[in-house]
Amino acid sequence: MSHIVEIKTEVRDEVAIGSACQRLKLDPPTRGTVKLFSSEATGVIVNLPGWRYPTVFDTRSGEARFDTYNGHWGKQAQLDRFLQAYGVEKTKLEARKKGHTVTEQSLADGSIKLTVSVGGAA
Amino acid sequence: MSKTIEIVVTPTGQTQVQTKGFTGTECRQASQFIEQALGQRTSEQLTAEFHQQASQQQSNQQHQ
């Protein structure tokens, strides 16, 4: 039996956030409270390239808080790129915890494909 | 057939998880840890491989 599941990524793992930052050559994440334009946010703080204010991930809810003023203070593409890196790193982390082998491949449309061999050596 | 889980992460960070080579409901159990770790399921689709195996099981039961 096989199945295909679509998943909306939730950013809940601080270790995987750190790995995603490393993968994208961003500064390591910090934890704390930061001021956005008119509010404050607490969680894991990531500075995305070209963004005026940081992105703050609430690892309990998996939600991101940020203020880009409709793209004027930061491009959505940078957050998307981060979410992709997070998804890849989180998958690799979880697969390796189970002792599975993971291979990574870049696809023509910009997606990243990970193949987890179940039962393979880590 | 070897058992694999394929995960495609799109440029916007959405993920698609597909299992291959599993039998019975094993595939759901096999990929559950990744699905739960990544976030919320928005859809599930059973593949042709599932339907083929399900109809084979039915026909085997009828012949017994």
UniProtKB/TrEMBL annotation, chain A:
<protein>
    <recommendedName>
        <fullName>DUF1257 domain-containing protein</fullName>
    </recommendedName>
</protein>
From TrEMBL, chain B:
<dbReference type="InterPro" id="IPR021375">
    <property type="entry name" value="DUF2997"/>
</dbReference>
<protein>
    <recommendedName>
        <fullName>DUF2997 domain-containing protein</fullName>
    </recommendedName>
</protein>
<dbReference type="Pfam" id="PF11211">
    <property type="entry name" value="DUF2997"/>
</dbReference>
